Amino acid sequence: MEYPEQEKYWIWLGSIEGIGPKRFYHLIARYGDAKSVFERAEKGDPCLDRLPEAVCNRLLTCRHEEYFSTLFENLDKNGITVVTGLNPDYPRLLSEIADAPPILYKKGAGKLDFPQSVAIVGTRQCTRYGLENTRKIARELGGEGVLVVSGMARGIDSAAHIGALEAGGSTVAVFGCGVDIVYPPENQKLYERILESGAVISDYAPGIEPVAQYFPARNRIISGMCSATVVVEAGEKSGAMITAGYALEQGREVFALPGNVDSKASKGTNIMIRDGEAGILTDIGQILGLYDAKKSLLQSRESAVDPALFDENEWKIINCLIQGDEHYDRMLQETGLSVQDMNSTLTMLELRGIIKQLPGHVFSIAVQN
């Protein structure tokens, strides 16, 4: 696959072991862009001062054409594409979270950025009640054109993917390992079915084996891609509860399926409902209603912004931000503005109180409705 030049360097930088989101964006901020890191990074450079020595050495070792070309050859050979934060297919909601992965490795034909997306998660040690309701919820959502996101783990996660596929809908599985590794192994057929119409994604490089410590971090992606997270069954301390916690931190809606008070599988979900951390899910109309409300908000936001008040460059940026928060580099690509025009226009819009800058070089519209 051929990538735009700047995306190639994002993929290169994101592929280096030890360069997580915080270090990635720190380097982008210090050097200006990923290509400049490749061309200018040197031993002893103060721009590398936050990197541990081992990571710094690894970065410098990978800064040569052979590594660069081999990286893309291996991706193509294994049928893996990479969706960067600069790509229009990068999930817009995911780009809004504080530690959004700069690159996502992907297998499968499905797109990632849907107008409507819901995470469905739960325990591996689920009950028949949990499995049946998960498939029913996922089927109904898939039938309404909603993207169903989960982690392809045993139990509830697998049922969520199956339900979406039964409805002819699209589903995305987020892995805590490389996308070329089927985990758990018994889900080989499900993995292949997902690839036909959906996708498997991960921020871990191909070949990375599943390790327990990787899964909590991947859960932030599951919740981050979605406006709402549904927890079907979950123990009091479980990965599904971690995902729900991320969703709450990200300002997303959380729903839980109530269960028998004597069921260990429903202990976590019942506690969330009791404590007011999750709404009781009775039908998918509650979830679809969120999107109707969001659509109304976008329409009111659009009507609140008068194009006559802005020049051409300002309107390009405003139009880009009306749909949601956006990273600087992605705006640069979408608007087609030069760096100089982008910087000067952003400054003027900030001074006028029209937009505001968020952490991670992300911008948001500040017009009040």
CATH topology assignment of the largest domain: Rossmann fold
Q: How many strand segments?
A: 12
* Spatial arrangement of strands, main beta sheet: 1-2-6-5-4-3-7-8-9
**Count of alpha and pi helical runs:** 16
Helix content: 40-55%
Distance between the termini: 42 Å
Question: How many strands, which pairing sense, and closed or not: the largest β-sheet?
Answer: 9 strands, mixed
Using only C-alpha atoms, the radius of gyration works out to: 21 Å
The structural class is: alpha/beta
Query: What is the chain-wise order of helices and strands?
Result: HHHHHEHEEHEHEHEHEHEHEHHEHHEE
Average pLDDT, to the nearest integer? 89
Can you characterise this structure?
It is a single chain. The chain is α/β, with parallel strands linked by helices. It folds into 3 domains: 1-77; 117-290, Rossmann fold, CATH 3.40.50; 305-365, Orthogonal Bundle (Arc Repressor Mutant, subunit A), CATH 1.10.10. The protein contains 16 helices and 12 strands. A hairpin with a 3-residue loop joins strand 11 and strand 12 (362-365). It is globular, with a radius of gyration of 21 Å. Residues 293-298 have low confidence and may be disordered.
What are the defining features of this structure?
369 residues; alpha/beta; Rossmann fold; Arc Repressor Mutant, subunit A; 9-stranded mixed beta sheet; 3-stranded antiparallel beta sheet
